[in-house]
Sequence to fold (442 residues):
Amino acid sequence: MTVPTKPGRNAIARAAQDPYSRRKFLVLTGGTGAAGAFLAACGDDDDDSTASSDTSTDMASTGDALADAGFGEGDVGILNYALTLEYLEAGFYAAVADSGLFKGEELALVKTIGGHEQEHVDALLATLKDLGEEPAPEPEAEFPLDDAETVLKTAAEVENLGAAAYLGQAAKIENPDILAAALAIHTVEARHAALLNTLIGEDPTPDGAFAVPADPETVLDAVQPFLVQ
Amino acid sequence: MTNKTQAAPELEQIEFKPIDRSSFLMKGILAAGATYGAFAAGPMLRKAFAQDGGSEGDIEILNFALTLEYLETAFYEQAAKDAKLSSENAALVKTFGEQEAEHVAGLTQAIEDLGGKPVEAPAVDFGDAFTDEGTFLATAITFEDLGVSAYNGAGPMISSKDLLATAGAIVQIEARHAASVRNAAGEPAAPDAFDPTLTVDEVTKAVTPFLAQ
Fold:
């Protein structure tokens, strides 16, 4: 299980230089011009980095990483980022439920958790609609479904990552109602993560007493292997 | 979002003498939780802290969180001594108790950094919570769910972004504890897609006397 414990500040820069990863990243962000500009800025032309007011060599510390990546600005960017992650989670559990790898109580659990993720998708879509904003597209994804053990490990990884991703954004949310909703989702992702960690024999609190947040670069890099071109 | 109200009568037997605003508020939240369920804590705190704001308000919120963490730490400490537990559950109690103690230390430091005075640990009696494993787990579930609700409810009232991030780092651990003790008791680890943010008027009415202090 790989739980991000520190910011991977060069993740997107690496993705930009690797044509294969770059293509996948563009799929994730809907291939918008903004993402293209961001990726270009992360490339070789260090002198021409206009995507952010901060220096492009320290992407992890910029507050605009989500806007630069094409998710939108401020709360909208955070909502679209969260929506993208929830789409991946919901899609993953739907694929697992259809795989035939789980039966009985285990299948029921997969469906319950997947149902929660779908409710998160629905709530985030509704919030973006209320704000009059265009929601991020559902990413096309494929997940390893070789055996039940691998699936549970992937599930634990995705849930720990999701909890860390929400934690990484909590203090950046401006609207108190959106913050309240995000907190209510964050702790459910944490519950899923603790349960799945326990099911695969891992520590339910791998970070210790204080959970470690993950920045968007780390999170988006970690989900890239699941994205389909 | 689903709002679920479920009484948590096990909270009624928790006795302590309020010594300051934080522990008086805590007492009110336990009373509300006994009647309306653990998730009643969030809306109460949003109301209790709505009038504050700034670093003074943040100190109030942190002191309330400190009171909660003191109770949780004492709860696990006593469970380790008094409850007959399986080896798996004893291991959880040890780990979680240490983590709650780290929350106490972290919050105490944060309050001092803001120039505030950290509240004292309230003396507490958990009644019959440790008579058997089932009672212990039921009380642990309620305590941890209450902690999740309290932090999630108070979160939007925190002025400082740094403190909000710290509260987030703590509440994620409370949620992981809640899921673990629920799983240990054979209960659903995540009973809902959203940890409820109750908006029940009766909850706040019931605890208004406590909020006034």
Observations:
- The interface with chain A takes residues 1, 95-96, 98-100, 102-103, 106, 148, 151-152, 155-156, 161-162, 164-166, 168-180, 182-183, 188-190, 192-197 of chain B (CB under 8 Å).
- Residues 2 and 196 of chain B are 7 Å apart (CA to CA).
- The mean pLDDT of chain B is 86.
